[in-house]
Write a structure and sequence with these properties.
The structure holds 2 protein chains of 2 kinds. By secondary structure, chain A is mainly β. Chain A has 1 helix and 5 strands. By secondary structure, chain B is an all-beta fold. The chains are: A mainly beta, B mainly beta.
């Protein structure tokens, strides 16, 4: 599971049928100090995260578990909207 | 998934027999301004993508979750053709 920030949305009409009515968000991976960490990815959003929100996302085939139809070619999904990151966690020794 | 642009096709007659009938497209990763990046991947097409189109590629075992790639030795599949990007920041 990784941290990310929602920075936009993708619109695609021609796509795999299992992705019908699912939101595809553009996520900028971030570290626990909230600075960018890697190239943006596209993740399915079944939670309803808004633009700019800090989120947690999962990758690989487990990303299909939140989906209504799990037989879907999806390798990233937003699973949580972050309220707060406890500061002690950031300064790992 | 990653964002990429289809830049070409791979033809291979001698290949694993499970791969017969599949279209292999060369997809170059792109950034959010559609500028080509260095990485590329050879992905199986499952939505009728053409050269020049901006697409989404799913990788790993998720790539086998389509009718075209089910139980096939495939780890990257084109599963959407991008119409539009909305960037907020």
């Amino acid at each position: 599971m990784f941290f990310g920030r929602v920075i936009g949305t993708i619109w695609a009409t021609r796509k795999n049928p299992a992705l019908e009515n699912l939101k595809l968000q553009i996520v900028q991976p971030i570290d626990s100090g909230r600075s960018p960490a890697g190239a943006p990815i596209i993740a399915v959003d079944t939670i309803g995260a808004g633009s700019g929100e800090t989120i947690c996302y999962i990758t690989a085939r487990e990303a299909t578990i939140p989906l209504p139809d799990r037989f879907a070619p999806v390798d990233a999904a937003i699973v949580a909207i972050v309220d707060r990151i406890d500061p002690e966690v950031i300064e790992t020794k | 998934m990653i964002l990429g642009k289809v830049i070409g096709t791979v033809w291979a007659t001698r290949k694993d027999e499970n791969l017969t009938g599949m279209k292999f497209l060369i997809v170059r990763h792109v950034d959010l301004d559609y500028r080509l990046k260095d990485q590329y991947v050879v992905a199986v097409d499952s939505v009728g993508a053409g050269v020049g189109e901006v697409v989404l590629v799913a990788s790993g075992s998720s790539a086998r979750q389509t009718d075209v790639t089910k139980n096939k030795p495939v780890d990257a599949v084109i599963m959407a053709i991008v119409d539009k990007l909305d960037l907020s920041d």
